[in-house]
Amino acid sequence: MKEFKPYQVLLFVLLVFALLAPIVIFVPKNGWNIAGINMRFLTKNEFFTPKKTEKKDISDLVAKIDTSNIDMMEDPLMKHANGSNGSLGAPNGGQLSTESSTIIHFSESGIKQLHTFFGKLQNAASSKQKVHIIHYGDSQIEGDRMTAYIRQRIQNQFGGNGPGLIPAVNVYNTNTFKQTYSPNFVRYTCFGGDKLRNKRYGAMGSAARFTPEPDSSMIKNSGEIKEAWIEIEPSKSAYSRSKEYNNVTMFYNSCVKSCMLKVYQNGSLIHEDSLIADGKSHDVHLSFPSTPGKLKYVFSGAISPNISGFSLEGDYGVQVSNVAMRGSSGTIFGSMDQSLLSKMYSELNTELVIMQFGGNSIPALKDSSGVRNFASYFKGQLNTLRKLRPSAAIVVIGPSDMARPENGEFISYPLIPYLVQQMKKATTEANAGYWDLFNAMGGLNSMPAWVEKGLAGKDYIHFSPKGASIASQLFFDAFAAELAKWQQGSPVN
User: Rounded to whole angstroms, how far apart are CA atoms 154 and 480?
Assistant: First the structure.
């Protein structure tokens, strides 16, 4: 490789400056329009006296949030003898505070539905029942980010164990569980990538198959028997509540031809089953005296069913499931089989749905009418959820601040405040709750401050693990404050 002498480097730098200087001096304030494309460059004033964006000071916000008190890391077909004694899931409880730096915005009807949920939540452990919370979101919650922290706080308070629903085929890095699968399993989603023609994804909006969806000729012909497997085990790095579970349920549907299932626990065969080939939705439930370790589900058949996920749970209490949908704006519920979705919500006893969306729409929004259109469409999704599960309360976590480079510095997308306003309006009109993450983290141009403190990534969009914990604590504080006020004003049912 040729080495350059110092004077050659200096000459090159001077030449670059000489070429760029006329552009800096003569460039118009709004750039040049060339063939319909706006070409911008630093003007002379911007170059010599660059504009400084006021940096948000989030020191007080960060100092007030303590995330250290959360419990961290630490011949005939054989039939499994389900072995749980029904005792895993007791809460730790404790006093909740009515104080919070933020609030959840509700209509009068929305707050009544939340109070109904509080009654079910508070009674779950004492009645040895299960209550399910599903947290849908975009890539901001990917890999169990935010959900993991919220789950630990809620399960500690009200009981419950395990991460709840996990996908049949997981493609995101997560510390909450471990999963591997055979290469012939293909992931299908309602929000991007390969899609199912029959739209029978289930509550997670995703499913997996080891053969393509069949046509009528494939069903008639016997075909070659194929084998595939999915292996699941707890993660040592998960929060304490998530890594302990003793009930494992596999959900499947669209089984139209004989498919055998063998389940191995730590290498030993414990269960054999023939999946029900009537095309309807079913599950295979196994229970254990304690956390089962490594479970391997081995399938063999000519045509795969849709495997729509697993649920890892304790015996009773609260389940909080993370359903991350990278690239989605939450407008996906019409693209799933409605009867299956409603049935699964009912079977899981889903009584709260958290919807954390809006971020993916921000870069595409060009004007205020685009914002209003998105908010209106999002409201339609909330109404669809309401029809699917009328008893469930809904809480929306709005978009965070997001920043983009402009003139050499990162500043917020200008339409975020208006989007927050319109999403809040649409959410309360749909009788759901709205928690304002954007203003909770500091508002306009707060993301650069979060990045500077290591609380968000260099993409100026996603929280770091520490930042996600702080954002989650802010949400939990607002949620807990509402519950504490309800406890003080309402007797236990």
Answer: 9
